Structure formats: C-alpha cells, structure tokens
Amino acid sequence: MSRETVSHEQGAIYEFAPEMDPVETVPPGTAVTIETRDSLDGAVQSESDLIDQVPGEVNAATGPIAVEGAMPGDVLRIEIEEIRIAEPEGRVITIDGFGLLDGYPQIEAPETRMTPVEDGQLSFEGIDVPIEPVIGTIGVAPAEESFTTLVPHDHGGNLDTTDMSAGNTAYFPVFQDGALFSMGDCKAAMADGEMCGTGAEVATEIDLTVDLVETDVELARPLVETADAWKTIASAETIETACELANEDAIRLLAADNDLSATEAYMLSSLVGGLEISQVVDPLVTVRNAVPKKYLSAPL
Amino acid sequence: MSRETVSHEQGAIYEFAPEMDPVETVPPGTAVTIETRDSLDGAVQSESDLIDQVPGEVNAATGPIAVEGAMPGDVLRIEIEEIRIAEPEGRVITIDGFGLLDGYPQIEAPETRMTPVEDGQLSFEGIDVPIEPVIGTIGVAPAEESFTTLVPHDHGGNLDTTDMSAGNTAYFPVFQDGALFSMGDCKAAMADGEMCGTGAEVATEIDLTVDLVETDVELARPLVETADAWKTIASAETIETACELANEDAIRLLAADNDLSATEAYMLSSLVGGLEISQVVDPLVTVRNAVPKKYLSAPL
Lengths: 300, 300
Known about the structure:
- By secondary structure, the first copy, chain A, is mostly beta strands.
- Helix content of chain A is 9%, strand content 39%.
- The mean pLDDT of chain A is 97.
- At the A-B interface, β8, β9, α1, α2 and β21 of A face β8, β9, α1, α2 and β21 of B.
C-alpha cells in the first residue's frame, strides 16, 4: 500500500476547531507520513534565541487530515510506527510565566539550551540523553468549543504524554465528520511532567497508520495502548480532577471487561497499574490511568 | 550477624511524634525483621466486616526503633530486603468520606472485598493479581509537629509509595536523636494512586538493614533508591505543590551531581525520568520525581 505524505507546508493549525478544512482526505487503513515543525516554528536556533523573540504563533500541528467515513461516535485509531528526528538539534527552553517552578528565584527565564544530536543521542550540556521521541500535540476536531493547540482536552491536543511514541496506538473519540486529526509539537526526549515547560523540541517525520475502530464503547476522552497496558488520558484544571476523570474512565473499562461492579472495578484499579503524570504545565494538566493488559483484554 | 526481631506486640504507634520512647535500640548496620499488623488492626476478616465497625485506631506502625548515634542532620538508610505476607488473605475496602471518587454515585462505601493468597498470587473476585508487597507507612520522628500515622510529610509516614518495596533502599532525614523509625500499613499489592483508599492490606514480616549515611547533603524529605533511579518524595495539600517540592529536591541533586545551574538542572529534569504519583487519597498527597541513575551517580 502506498504511503501518503502530509507536510506542515501543506497545512498546520494553531487551533483545534469543530469546523476545519482538511488539507488531505484519506480512506481508513491509510499509511501516512506527517512532517512536523518544531513547536517554536524554527525560530530558536541558538542559545541566544529566546522565546520572547519568536515572531509568530507557536505549537503548530500539521493537518487537519480527514478520514473518509468517520462520523461522530466513531473511534479513530492512530498506530504510531516511527518518529524520526528531522533536524540536527533540538532545544529546551524556560519561559517567563510558564512551567512548574515558574517564579522560583533560582530559575531563570527565558533561557534556551540547544540539544544537538550526536551519535544517535541528544547532548544536553555535554550529558548524553537517549532519543525517545514523543508527539506532544495530537488530536481531532472537538465537539463544540475550539481549543488552541496549547490546550489539552477531550479531543486530545497538547497532551504532552510520553506514551504518544513509536510502537503505541492512540485512540480518540470522533466528534466531527472526517475526524480531522492533526499533530505536531514533537520532542526528542521528554520527562513525565514536562516540568520546565518543554522537552527537547524538534521537527520530525512521523509514520503512522490511521483507521476507524468498530466498537459499541462510547469513548469520552483519548486512550493509548502500549505494549503492556491500556491507559486512559484526562485533562482538567487541577491534577486532582484529571486523576478522577482518568480513574472513572479506567473503572468503566475494567468493570465491562471483567464483569465487575463499579465499586469492585474501583478497588481493582487501586491494586494494579495506576495513575501517571503526563504534564503539569499546560493551561489544563494531563494525567493517565494505566491498566495492565492482563485485566483489559478488549476495552474497545 | 544476628538479626533483631521487633513485633507489633512489643510496640506500635498511631502518631509520629518528636519525642517517643523506643521499643528497641540497635547499632547502625543492624539487620532487623519487623512484624506489622494489617492497617485495619485485624478487625476486617470477611466481606461483612466494614471499616465502620473497626473498634480502635487504624494504621499502626511497629516501633519506634532507635539507631545508636543517629543525630539531627544525619541521613537514615533503610535497605528493604524482603517483605513476606504473614496471613492467608488481605482485604481491600472503600470508606465513606475517603478515596479519589468519594461521593461518586456509582461507588458504594463502606464495602469490603477479601483477597485470598492462592498459588502465590492474590485473588480479587476470582482475578489473579501478582503479589508485590509495599510498605505503606514508613518514617522517623518528625522535627517539631506530630503527625498521625495516616498523614505523610517530610518525616515519611503514610507515603503509600509503591517503591517502598523489596530490593529498594529508603533514606530519611534524621530530626531527633536515635532517628526513631517505625513502619506498617503494608499492602500485598497497590496501584500508584491508591485510588479507593487502600491496597490489599495485610500483615507482614519485613527484613531490612538499617544504617546511617555519612553525607554533607542536607536531605529535607524522604528519598528512595531503586534498581535504576533515585526518586525524591514530597507530600503536600495539593498534587501540584507536591510536584513542585519533589522537582525542587530533584533539581538540587541533579545540579550538584552534574555541575549544572539550577535552571539547567530544571531543564534536564524535564527531559529524563519524571514525576510519578504515589497516592492521591491521604490527608496530604504524595508525589515522587524519578531521576535515572545515569544522571545521579552519588546524590548522598
């Protein structure tokens, strides 16, 4: 099967809106390569380039791409096959007014450090860091409200979730005809939490296969399948609320799959897998609830 | 070397206080076996036994044990060697007014489910769950304030952290002469988050070796060493604040060990390892910041 290529030159969004014009339309089952800009739009190329000087908008997501036949209530499946770093170096920055320790006297912002790729690793101030690419922003057209690409919500968006990586499969609720998915904001490496506000931001080429899932399950929020777990993903104003939403979603799947009451599924969720932090720095924060596959044979 | 045994019969506390009488005093380097009651004090032995009917206090911690020569400013090292389940079944419960989804209409509380040990696994409603024992409450005498054993803080206490498990080593600041450590509230299995408010609560026998570390590092809060990471541990009113404290502690260690500025250490913390949830249900919540050992050769 041939592989479609969609580049940021063809189209990129700074807002996930209910109505968007697709830059490409593909049938379910299509293999696609998506080219993404770095989240700072190529404007930070040395340590003297600071976030204050970036002229335009940030966090472009390549797309949107329509999937033929996708309708509200469907589930979109994105199998992430490979994420290639498409430039010789990434960059990590601090931003005044942003980040977990924003305002702490010992933290300087804005600052930039470049992270060159050397011998298949990143170099941060001379320290080798393994390249483990993550798609920071990935999502579909939302139900009613529009969200800038800096905000994560039930449509996905700026989830900054380390499991959005090669070998994993992401699932999104379809809210609009064609689903209209977009992605960008990739990192060559990122910690759970994304504490300083960025990972090592880089341009990438992402190989994926997009498909629709036939299911009776009503998916409310994104879900990701890793080698050994299913993880519900929820974003909210506080980490506490995001934990509640992710746990509620996990319990619903656990109860259905194991023929348990909600209370028993809640108890089981308190014994296996658990809550994980995606990011604590974006306008809404993101948490996931991992459930080992042993307890969820077929959640969708 | 002989091994000391300290049982809950000899002494157990329901409050970590600055001044406590030790039930045993041991020299640094001593191998100790600690016997712990289950957190519900043996009062829940069937599904008709509910938390409301537990007559006495809950969350006993066996101890305190004094370490000869330990002085404020020292660091106590507890190498956790083995945790054996000491009864034929555990129990998981819901509690009215407690737990992540407390008050949600689909969750019933109080409820109890027993988790018998069968063929080396737990059984929860017929579902096999691997036994991976965790010490829920572990800590030392605090600096000034007293904390019930239900509360985690800088002295440790009810940390409910899955890394407090066999093979790992926990470090605590010493605030009082003799350190005065205690532990209990073990679980045969527990998810990160402890969402319903408990894991599978069980009586255990814990083999450990206690020692003092010679270091110039001023440890403010607990730290745990796993096979591949050092993890700072912080408890606070909100998960956000706990994340900040755990990240601050991680940055301090990263900066010292790698000769980085605080800002650069903050950036590096945003690239590798990351924030992890311990528990989101106790009176204060607990978070850890994992730093792979590759980046922290000798934090203490």
